[in-house]
Amino acid sequence: MRAVSLWLWQQRLKGLWQGSAVQGFCRAWGQELLASLPAALRRGLQPGRAPRRCPWPLPAEALPGERLVLELPADRVLVQRLGLPLAAARDLHRVMDFELDRFTPFSAGQVHYVVRREGIDSDQVGVTLAVLRREWLQQCLDECHARGVVLAGIDVLDARGQPMGLDLLPHAPAASGGGQRLAWGLALLCLTLLAAVPWQWRHNRETALAAMTQEVQGLRTQAEAVAALRKRLDEAQGAAQFLARRRLAQPGRALLLSELSRCLPTDTWLQTLEINGEGQVDIAGFSSHASGLIAQVKGCNHLADAQYQGVIQPDEASGRERFYMRARARGEGGDAPRTDTP
């Protein structure tokens, strides 16, 4: 009785499961999962070949451990096609538990039955009812168990000898637990993969973000290096241009010596000649007529604003006059070098 009750619940759940969108999704998902596994593991997880169909009573060639689908003759099973109200379609098994004695000469406790919905008309639902005596079914199951065969199902042959596709097996034998273990294993694998999808998505996002952050940091470092190199280049160019301008604006020491040799009289010689970075020229020397040197220096093209520094003093050793003079150097164009004051 407990086995029949369990089977009834299984049939109800099977009716909700068969043809549902969830079943189609799970079947497609399972096929994708099997296809992604290695070939050796896929062969181990895939179910074996389909069970062999054989008539009742069991033939002598039925081997122990073989999976079989029994095909019962029509005289062993009471099969009826009924029309029930549309309201009964919601729960055919519950309705049939109460109405079985109205359609058959047996009560629900005497028989094992299956009911299959065939179609719905405008005012009723068509069903196929198959009834099998419980005592005879138990004898059939005991004989199969004694022979060691594994029952995968019990079908019924119609009047033409064709199987009707009605599974009268109340529960799966213990030997067929491998298929259930496989189903539970695949279901657990599906749940595990579904649970791993968000984690994998987050991991991929974090990996991509880390890679992008590292790439941006590398680009920032390269940009900073380029900016520093450009700054050094600008500074080097500025220094080169500054030196070039200084070179053009300030004559060289040899040029100034040549100018002074031309402008100063022959009785004058120089003791020191200094030129600083701002174009200031300091001249010290001896001359027989030091007081007239300012007018002589004005004839130099590369000197301007010549002035005495201090007083002209006589020098007893040379018999001439010691002088100190300061002027500004002028470039090749005749302009004095520009001095920047803070």
Poorly predicted regions are: 172-177, 333-342
Mean pLDDT across every amino acid position: 79
What portion of the residues fall into strands of 2 or more residues? 15-25%
Q: Architecture of the largest domain, according to CATH?
A: 2-Layer Sandwich
Roughly how much helix do the residues carry, as a percent range? 40-55%
CATH topology of the largest domain: Nucleotidyltransferase, domain 5
Largest sheet, if any?
Answer: 5 strands, antiparallel
Q: Judging from the principal axes of the Cα atoms, what is the shape? A: rod-shaped
Summary, kept brief:
The protein is of the alpha+beta class.
Could you explain how this protein is built, in words?
With 342 residues, this protein is an alpha+beta fold. It has 2 domains: 2-15 and 43-193, Nucleotidyltransferase, domain 5 (2-Layer Sandwich), CATH 3.30.420; 253-329, General secretion pathway protein M, EpsM (Gyrase A, domain 2), CATH 3.30.1360. It is built from 8 helices and 11 strands. It has helices spanning 2-17, 21-36, 39-45, 92-103, 134-147, 177-249, 253-263, 293-297, and strands spanning 52-55, 67-72, 78-85, 111-120, 124-133, 150-156, 268-275, 280-287, 303-308, 313-315, 320-329. Strands 7, 8, 9, 10 and 11 form a 5-stranded antiparallel beta sheet that branches. A 3-stranded parallel beta sheet has the order 1-2-6, covered by helices on one side. A 3-stranded antiparallel beta sheet has the order 3-5-4. Strand 7 and strand 8 form a beta hairpin. The longest helix is centred in the middle third of the chain and has 73 residues, at 177-249. The radius of gyration is 58 Å and the shape is rod-shaped. The two termini are 112 Å apart.
